[in-house]
Design brief:
The protein is an alpha+beta fold. It has one domain. About 35% of the residues lie in helices and about 35% in strands. The protein has one helix and four strands; from the N terminus they run ββββα. It has a four-stranded antiparallel sheet with strand order 1-2-3-4. Strand 1 and strand 2 form a beta hairpin. It starts with a strand and ends with a helix.
């Protein structure tokens, strides 16, 4: 059984989306132990993935993995947009507060 995960890789001139493939090592009643293709079966190279969790590290279908990637990137945009607004507000209020000095 193969599991999939999409991640973005940043280069100096662009961003690429790559597909990572994982192989099933062991199935448990609650989830799967997987390892990245090309890596060994050493315990530190394995990752546990729940069968029922809403958010998983890797998914058994490309479609689910891609939907998760889009959701992760949308959430990242929300978080970073909020942080940008906080930084802008901090500078604005700093200017307002120091104009009287």
């Amino acid at each position: 059984m193969i599991f999939y995960r999409y991640e973005d890789m940043r280069y100096t001139d662009r961003v690429r989306v790559i597909e990572l493939k994982f192989t099933l090592d062991k199935e448990t009643p609650c989830g799967y132990w997987i390892f990245r293709n090309g890596s060994s079966l050493l315990k530190n190279n394995r990752k546990w993935v729940s069968k029922t969790s809403k958010n998983r590290y890797a998914y058994p279908t490309r479609k689910e993995a891609l939907e998760n990637f889009v959701a992760r990137k949308n959430r990242q945009i929300e978080i970073l947009s909020y942080q940008l607004e906080v930084a802008k507000d901090a500078l604005y209020y700093l200017e307002v507060d120091t104009k009287g000095d």
